[in-house]
Please model this.
Amino acid sequence: MRKLFIVAFLVFTVQFTYAQFKITSPVKWSYAAKKEKSGEATVYLKATIAEGWHIYAQNGVAKALITSFNFSNGNGYVLVGKTIEPKPLVKFEKVLKANVSYFEHTVVFQQKIKMKSAKVSVAGKLEFTVCNAKECRPAEEVQFNIPVS
Model:
């Protein structure tokens, strides 16, 4: 009985500790697509960033900090050009001793595709680093799958 009590206590303690210290990302991603008459479509990847945090642009910053997109080889579509982003904010980062490009609040990245069939699904993963004035979190990787029809 004592062993059962100890095991139950440890399980409860671990679950409580895990729940209390579970790290949630200050960035939420959402996706959309818009089909065009030309047989092309644009895929939108939107980051909503919590107040006080920022993510880095695709260029203009140390390689380890950039936001990057890796699209799976599409069955039914091909990528047209590179992923585009709006003009980022730029500031001098003392720690890096360089100007860095970043986004706050929200940012929408866009990727054009040429569709080979009427319905496709654009899949892949994105990677980003989120920072605030005190800390940078380890790079996060997010899988996505965006239907285009």
